[in-house]
Amino acid sequence: MTTTSGEFALLDETWSSVTPPAARRMLIAAAAAFSVRGYHATTTRDIAAQAGMSPAAVYIHYRSKEELLFQISRIGHATSLSLLTGVTEADPVARLAEAVRAFASWHAEYHTTARVVQYELSALTPEHLAEVVELRRRIETAVRDMVSAGVDAGVFDVPDVRGATLAVLSLCIDVARWYQPTGRRTPAEIGDLYADLVLRMVGTP
Length: 205
What we know:
Protein name: TetR family transcriptional regulator
Domain HTH tetR-type: 20-80
DNA-binding region: 43-62
Number of strands: 0
Mean pLDDT: 90
Order of helices and strands: HHHHHHHHHHH
Pfam families: TetR_C_24, TetR_N
CATH topology: Tetracycline Repressor, domain 2
CATH superfamily: Tetracycline Repressor, domain 2
Keywords: DNA-binding
């Protein structure tokens, strides 16, 4: 399966910090290939073909196939954390809704990348996995703090903050597994739907 130029352009927004352009294109190609074939079934030759480059070009920019996966995982998780911590609403209800809206819609809009980010972690080396796990811990903390703030303000009815936090994260992350661009909802509409569902989950008035 070859990614269309339109899909490359969409994915490129996530990886805009990666330079030079050839390294960025290789990372995008790896995300697309891993999403279709899975990490273990994908070869560096598959990735190079997806990027329209020679197999040797992979090793100019990345030490290994695992290094590509690590960069995809690291940048994807860092992007998720930025989405959650970048919400500026002071009101706990509006803050959680906006965070969920951004988080869920990203997992839909960038579902190809998000599937790799969320579901190929077991292939990382222990050192790389530890770095990604720390980002995941910070993501969980960001959401838990939002839920706790609502409980403290008396606007959320949540007897188990940690359980509610994991439920919110699981709900949003799972979008990457099932989302299809041909479905009846756009990423923005999914974000709106999930924001409403999460507010109902935490018992807002």
